Amino acid sequence: MSKLWPEKSTQFLKLTGIKIPIIQAPMAGGPSSPSLVSAVSNAGGLGSIGGGYLSPKSLKAQILEVKSKTDRPFGVNLFITDPGNDEIHSSDRIDKIINNYAEELGVELTGEVVPFPNFDEQIEVILENNIKVFSFTFGVPEKKYIERLKLNNTLVIGTATSVSEAVLLNKAGCDAVVAQGFEAGGHRGSFEYKDNIPLVGGISLIPQIADAIDIPLIASGGIMDGRGIYASFALGASAVQMGTAFLTCDEAEVNKSWIDLLMNSTDTSSALTNAFTGKFARGLNNRFMKELKRYEDEIPEYPIQHQLTRELRAKAKEMDNTDFMSFWAGQGSPMNRSTTAEKLINLLIEEYNDVNAKMSGD
Known about the structure:
The chain is α/β, with parallel strands linked by helices. The chain has one domain (7-360): Aldolase class I (TIM Barrel, Alpha-Beta Barrel). It is 41% helix and 13% strand. It is built from 15 helices and eleven strands. It has helices at residues 7-16, 34-42, 56-69, 92-105, 119-128, 143-151, 163-171, 202-212, 226-234, 244-247, 256-263, 287-292, 304-308, 310-319, 341-360, and strands spanning 22-24, 47-50, 74-79, 133-137, 155-160, 176-180, 186-187, 217-220, 239-242, 270-273, 281-284. The strands form two sheets. Strands 1-9-8-6-5-4-3-2 form an eight-stranded parallel beta sheet.
């Protein structure tokens, strides 16, 4: 085990009880399987369940499965967002576009709204199961939740895409903040903006947030190897959070089409889109993203668009039609490696130590 982590990282390791300052990003919707989460934790990092879409019952089942596979700390991530109501309202143009795609795929859209999980009940599951780390995205939890979690000795970690968001999370009582750079795959965690969503790259965002808060900073976005980890620490991070890098691990629940696209991607393969859910997210560009790009100002906000495209996405997945599926990935996707989670973490440590030795002149 490396003894070369910076002092800030050593302090973060003591805080969380993990051995390596690498967090597997909580990827909701499937990739963060119990097998992946437990494998990362067993390897010394912090595995994370992406629980945003999980019912309390399903969340509990995943937690218990992870616990059956590891006795190491792991985290659970939830969404802080308004689930909306039971009605879907959209523009005639967007409705027509979605219906045309559905007709092409042979999908009969029912308009059924699948209720979002009850946040209060999700929190109760986390408290009852004494989860070591609770992380969240898309906002700031009410004070009552943070207080209960901290009383339960659960560390609370928020997600920021700008300095102002990080300061709000610091003031709210978070124990650490994830600085999500523009390069990151998946949904932007932005919540404090009026007009344009924050799109700050990590090399600019990390040091600015580090200077603005007095709690540990976790760097995320485009970090794929030991060089990225070393750079993140040099910019002021105490740990790194990596998502895309773990998508091609054996334990991740990712279909073959997604893996093939990742392994054959280039530095310009990904793009930001709100076409699938109404929230901007970075994924591998495909027909649906390209054709709806011109209408992005008309696309209804999350969760309306998420509900509108739900049946379309499900049918596309069933057919393995990559034109209408969301393949979330960061800008570092060409650097993906096909391996196990344990081997990846060991390789990351080796790479980090190599860079550290070179920079130290050893």
